[in-house]
Write a structure and sequence with these properties.
Hypothetical Protein Tm841, Chain: A,domain 3; single chain; four-stranded parallel sheet; Rossmann fold; six-stranded mixed sheet; alpha/beta; 11 helices
Length: 302
């Protein structure tokens, strides 16, 4: 019997993808903007349109606050699955960005006491947005060819750091507010039209790596990073996410297909959990590298 792979709504997987999967469960997350609370349910097909409104609000000066999945929420969503006599592997948002993994780990301990006959594991993906989604995607593929929950846990343990995140932003204000850039760097960068290129390090933190001038240049650097670091790009699925700038995301997808023969690229939005901190105009690309070294290939910059 297949076990459940469970993740949180920061994974940003689209509803159409989720519907096609067997034994995949997405725990909702929440955010607040302009005094209104909203729940993120990735199976809601109206969500992409709502994300356009979300990014419009951010551009107009609204401030969004996000919330981690609580221990009680994890247990509430996992209990019905366990009561069916099935096992659960929880793949949680990077612990360097949220307390969601820690609450998942606490829920694991609580649920193991209640369901001692079941296998229950919580795993820190050290990934975010569709990077988290890409790890979930490969875990599903690995499980669905017949591997056990223990074998799948070992696979994600061995391969999570091979999920590479590269992204660029248009408005440095959001990175400053999130503590990723100093006020001086954000101010000067805005004047000089600097576009930082960021990635996720081995601890799952979002860090600036490169500074370039101009939007198109920053998108070309994303392509170059895939060209440089991807393991056999012509044989793997890649994901691209965007903060209300689908046209730029599709440009990058077409370039990857044309130049590197990437066979399958899924393009989707960046949800509020990451989008609140990266802002409108963000474009991110996610892929597998050879050994995880692409998370370490540049020094941090201010």
């Amino acid at each position: 019997m297949a076990f459940w792979i469970v993740t949180d709504a920061c994974c940003d997987l689209p509803a159409e993808y989720i519907e096609k999967q067997d034994h995949l469960y997405i725990v909702p997350m929440s955010y607040q903007i302009e005094g209104q609370m909203h729940e993120i349910r990735l199976t809601d097909k109206t969500l992409p349109a709502r994300m356009n409104d979300f990014y419009d609000q951010l551009e107009n000066g609204a401030v969004a606050t996000t919330f981690q999945v609580t221990q009680n929420e994890w247990t509430e969503h996992m209990t019905p699955l366990l009561e069916q006599g099935e096992d659960v592997l929880m793949l949680a948002l990077s612990s360097s960005l949220s307390g969601t993994y820690l609450t998942a780990k606490a829920a694991e301990a609580e649920l193991k006491e209640k369901f001692p006959e079941r296998s229950i594991f919580a795993f820190d993906t050290r990934c975010a947005s569709l990077g988290e989604g890409l790890l979930v995607h490969y875990a599903l593929l690995y499980r669905d060819v017949g591997h056990s929950i223990e074998e799948t846990l070992q696979w994600v343990t061995d391969n999570a750091l091979r999920v590479i995140h590269w992204f660029t932003v248009t408005d440095l204000h959001f990175l400053h507010r999130g503590g990723r850039l100093s006020a001086t760097s954000a101010y000067l960068g805005s004047i000089l039209k600097i576009k930082p290129i960021l990635n996720v390090d081995p601890k799952g933190r979002l860090l600036p790596r490169i500074k370039v001038q101009g939007r198109r240049h920053s998108l070309k650097v994303l392509y170059e990073k895939v060209e440089q670091d991807a393991l056999e790009p012509g044989e793997q699925t890649m994901f691209i996410s965007h903060g209300g700038c689908e046209k730029d995301a599709l440009w990058l997808a077409e370039r990857l297909k044309d130049k590197l023969d990437v066979p399958e690229i899924m393009v989707s939005f960046i949800g509020p959990i990451v989008g609140s901190h990266s802002g409108p105009g963000t474009v991110a690309v996610f892929f597998l590298d050879k050994d995880g070294s692409a998370r370490l290939d540049a020094p941090d910059i201010g």
